[in-house]
Design a protein that fits this description.
9 helices, alpha+beta, 491 residues, 5-stranded antiparallel beta sheet, 16% helix, globular, 9-stranded antiparallel beta sheet
Length: 491
Amino acid sequence: PGQSEEIKVPYTRPDLAPGVEYWLELSFRLAEAQTWADAEHEVAWAQFALPIAVPASPLALAGMPTLTLDDNAQEATITGGDFALVFDKQAGRIRSLTHAGRELLAAGPHLNVWRAPTENDLNAWGDERAAIHWREVGYDQLEEVVESAWVTRAWPEKIEISVRSILRVPDDAELLPPEDVSARYGMLEQGLQMLVDDAGLAALAGALGLDAAQLGGEAGGQLPGEPSARVARIGALLAWVTAQNRVYDLLLAVNQVLLAAGIPAPDVLEHAIAAGPEGWQPQTPAPRAHFDCNLVYEVYGSGDVIVNAHVIPIEGLPFLPRLGLQMQLAEGLEWFEWYGRGPHETYADRLEGARVGHFRGTVDELYVPYIVPEENGNKEEVRWAALTDAEGVGLLVACRGDAEHPYGCVSAHHYTTQDLTAAKHTYDLKPQPEITLNVDYAQSGLGSAACGPGRLEQYQLAAVERRFRVRLRPFARGEVEPVALGRAAPG
């Protein structure tokens, strides 16, 4: 302890292959068994991405099967090789995607910004209150309205489907009204009852320039069923500061009284003060969520479907829970593998404990049974992921974004987002045979607002214009080389 040593790590530059990432991974393990762990127990690890870049080869039309197109006003059917795709032009979505006759989709991809709020998101105190603001603008009630959809044959081996739509809140949707500040007074009143005695109450009144006698009765006894005199006086104090629009001044005074008494201020009080006086002012209605969306589906003879998404939100919206494509996969695609952060769940502000690697599991193993059901099981910085059935037939997915979010994130569950949002207990959840698959450009981080501050700004997914691409590829075992998808080579 307290010492250091330089060690030369033996390493030979490998033969480079297109699309492969090269990592140096160091593992620190016990040389000898200890009372608390066996020999070879890993104490720590570190990963370093080596400065070696060999771009993957782009999709080449040469050698791909020619596509067959059957197009009418309602739908477009595209076939080539072992796959077939049916696109519903009225709904603006893929209706069916099969490989060797095996249906892979129960419902096609659509744009999605909602996640089941975490307990941090649901926090109703402090300066963030994310889920409150999300529901005020209707992120949880968006519907897609397709304005146009048309099909273009770019090449014999490539067909494009262009969809223009909007995501909006239905006219008859009931949104959470702007936060009524008075609804937060109950929490403030309970806090004062726990923290402030009669002497402290008198000190508070004095700090606000109020004579304590103006608050009413003396401390002492009360009739059965009546509030104590102190509780009644606290209520009178709150009524007075509310009428004078001085609730924030009260928070500052409470902090001063506690400091003078040598009592540490609770975190929730510090966060409320840090939020500033604006948090106690009447709130103006937020705009209803509205996004202009352009999606272009590039369908190739290889079976690859590249979805190019361009999303433009109106101004003035709060940061997004997530942004990406959500789809329902057909029953039976239970085997999940991915190349990205893992093996446990990861989020934008929960990455440091997760390696970049190639991991395998099942859809059920991705679920994290939090006491109150919520968003869970996300995998960050995913280069690619695949879900397959027992015969090895499945769907490959990958997402590419921009410099801010170069890789996407993926999650898969036997519960819909609506299921997780509505459930109050784990026993409320009823697993579905289909799989809800999220392939996201990004998600907002988690923060710690349930018992601390909200997420840092760099982990908030701002509601601004975004572009990203999602790759879908139906396949059977042995048809897709991982090197063509991007994979890690050991260092």
